[in-house]
């Protein structure tokens, strides 16, 4: 059983209109610990009817919430931030239990998630409009920004807390109520956030969490209901495209954070120690299960062998195990399907001539634990070149020239994060400009922060989260033309 100092953070009901509710059908969904498959708790398996109730509650809450002053909304967000940080240890334990990431990483995610609440508590007060010099005598032109309306947020399991706050904090700050549908694997962080939101003083209906039995039915209601004015989704490109199509009928605004296929390029002139440290942070964080994880390591000919040897040393030091039981750097993968995808990528690469430098198979701990893996001599015809592996596998590609590296890096339909290591200032500027990506890490493997805009180009998505840009996605521009002056 989970040993929480605040047991009220472990909830087994969904949160709609300020109340903790069961599914109308009475059905429940098991939430299990991926480290050992054990049952943590069961949550309501909700569908379209409960989703509609939540949307209606949010719609009723919209008027009074947007009518509050920015400072009043800011104060509630600030309290939420403080409550999240005060509960950091409990929230981290809950997250490790439902998601599997090492406890230290879970604590880091709580702080990262909370940072968006703090940031947007501040930004709430800085939603400025504009005045425009009139085009005719006797007129005045004023531009105001207004909250877009009810927001639906559909979030993934890899960051069970931070993907919720990254969407909801700017929405709430702007004056929009939210209906969140967390991933079925990880609803507990979302429900704990709802408990803390209630304590922070969000009025009923402003923040709602639906736990879905059938994500398709809930997703359909969230995208078809005309009262929802905006969908913010993080997840697979496949589901993102489906939701985008479903939103077309009511012309909803969209923010989409979809898949990536991040290149991580190491040039001959790179600082090798820094490149190895960056590759470790980018590749093996969350056991390789993030959309900005290095998916393809492109290494220049002259340092290929040296880089491979140093990376292997670093990977050999990673300890694999259950996050609640010790100091491990690698947890289990989220489920069996994830393990099978990793196995398929390795098998495809090896069948076409790649070499296993390290790992390559399920870990002796069993379950969904996997050995941290390095593959060398990987080429663009192999599965890891085209698809996101989402696991602890570092495939090493070889390149000769800068031009070839950029071509390989951009040879994908995705465009979320890219990384490269070089100490040549001319190359740094050339490559930064040539990369078709929303985020570029230059001599840096960790790029996520609440102060900078996170988001992708091409099929990686629409919109930006975090930073001064993040609140814009939840605002509409209204132009007031005043005559007769
Ligand atoms: P992953 O492969 O990372 O699990 P998904 O895109 O399947 O990515 O899941 C991300 C989120 O999308 C989860 O909350 C999941 O429940 C939700 N989801 C999956 N299918 C649908 C759907 N048809 N409609 C709405 N939400 C969906």
Question: What's the CATH topology label of the largest domain?
Answer: Aldehyde Dehydrogenase, Chain A, domain 1
Q: How many separate domains make up the residues?
A: 2
Count of helices? 14
Rounded radius of gyration (Å): 23 Å
**Text of the CATH class of the largest domain:** Alpha Beta
Bound molecules: adenosine-5'-diphosphate
Low-confidence spans: pLDDT under 50, at least 5 residues?
none
Q: What is the terminal separation in angstroms?
A: 70 Å
Shape type: globular
Family: Belongs to the aldehyde dehydrogenase family.
Protein name: NAD-dependent aldehyde dehydrogenase
Pfam family, one: Aldedh
GO molecular function, one term: succinate-semialdehyde dehydrogenase (NAD+) activity
Overall description:
It is built from 14 helices and 20 strands. The chain has 485 residues and is of the alpha/beta class. The protein has two domains: 7-258 and 460-481, Aldehyde Dehydrogenase, Chain A, domain 1 (3-Layer(aba) Sandwich), CATH 3.40.605.10; 263-442, Aldehyde Dehydrogenase, Chain A, domain 2 (3-Layer(aba) Sandwich). The strands form five sheets. The chain has a seven-stranded mixed beta sheet with strand order 14-15-16-13-12-17-18, with helices on both faces. The protein has a six-stranded mixed beta sheet with strand order 9-8-7-10-11-19, with helices on both faces. Helix 3 crosses helix 4 (103-123) and helix 9 packs across helix 10. The longest helix has 21 residues, at 103-123. The protein starts with 13 loop residues before the first strand and ends with a strand. Adenosine-5'-diphosphate is lined by residues 154-156, 181, 183-184, 215-216, 219, 235-236, 239, 242-243. Residues 154-156, 181, 183-184, 215-216, 219, 235-236, 239, 242-243 line the site of adenosine-5'-diphosphate.
């Amino acid at each position: 059983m989970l040993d929480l100092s605040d047991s009220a953070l472990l909830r087994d009901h969904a949160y709609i209109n300020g109340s903790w509710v069961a599914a109308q059908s009475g059905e429940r969904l098991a939430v299990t610990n991926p480290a050992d498959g054990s049952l943590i708790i069961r949550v309501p398996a909700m569908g379209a009817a409960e989703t509609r109730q939540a949307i209606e509650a949010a719609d009723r809450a919209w008027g009074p919430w947007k009518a509050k002053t920015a400072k009043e909304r800011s104060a509630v967000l600030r309290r939420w931030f403080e409550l999240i940080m005060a509960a950091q240890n409990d929230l981290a334990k809950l997250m490790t239990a439902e998601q599997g990431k090492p406890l230290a990483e879970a604590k880091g995610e709580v702080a990262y998630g909370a940072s968006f609440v703090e940031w947007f508590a501040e930004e709430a007060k800085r939603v400025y409009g504009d005045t425009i010099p009139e085009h005719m005598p006797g007129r005045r032109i004023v531009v105001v920004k207004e909250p877009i309306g009810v927001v639906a947020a559909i979030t993934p399991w890899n960051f069970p807390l931070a993907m919720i706050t990254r969407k909801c904090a700017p929405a709430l700050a702007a004056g929009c109520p939210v209906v969140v549908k967390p991933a079925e694997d990880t609803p507990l962080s979302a429900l704990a956030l709802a408990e803390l939101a209630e304590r922070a003083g969000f009025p009923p209906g402003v923040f709602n969490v639906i736990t879905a039995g059938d994500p398709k039915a809930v997703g359909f209601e969230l995208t078809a209901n005309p009262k929802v004015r905006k969908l913010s989704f993080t997840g697979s490109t496949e589901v993102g495209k489906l939701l985008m199509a479903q939103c077309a009928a009511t012309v909803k605004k969209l923010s989409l954070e979809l898949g990536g296929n991040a290149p991580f390029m190491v040039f001959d002139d790179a600082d090798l120690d820094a490149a190895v440290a960056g590759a470790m942070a980018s590749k093996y964080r969350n056991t390789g299960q993030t959309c900005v994880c290095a998916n393809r390591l492109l290494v220049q000919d002259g340092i290929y062998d040296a880089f491979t040897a140093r990376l292997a040393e670093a990977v050999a030091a990673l300890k694999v195990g259950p996050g609640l039981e010790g100091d491990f750097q690698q947890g289990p993968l989220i489920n069996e399907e994830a393990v099978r995808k990793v196995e398929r990528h390795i098998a495809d690469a090896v069948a076409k001539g790649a070499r296993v430098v390290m790992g390559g198979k399920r870990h002796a701990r069993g379950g969904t634990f996997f050995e941290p893996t390095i593959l060398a001599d990987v080429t663009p015809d192999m599965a890891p070149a085209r698809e996101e592996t989402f696991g602890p596998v570092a495939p090493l590609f070889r390149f000769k020239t800068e031009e070839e590296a950029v071509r390989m890096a951009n040879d994908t339909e995705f465009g979320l994060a890219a990384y490269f290591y070089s100490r040549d200032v001319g190359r740094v500027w050339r490559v930064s400009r040539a990369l078709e990506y929303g985020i570029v890490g230059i001599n840096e493997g960790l790029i996520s922060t609440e102060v900078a805009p996170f988001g992708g180009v091409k099929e990686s998505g629409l919109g930006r989260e975090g930073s001064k840009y993040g609140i814009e996605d939840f605002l509409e521009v209204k132009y007031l033309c005043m005559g007769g002056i």
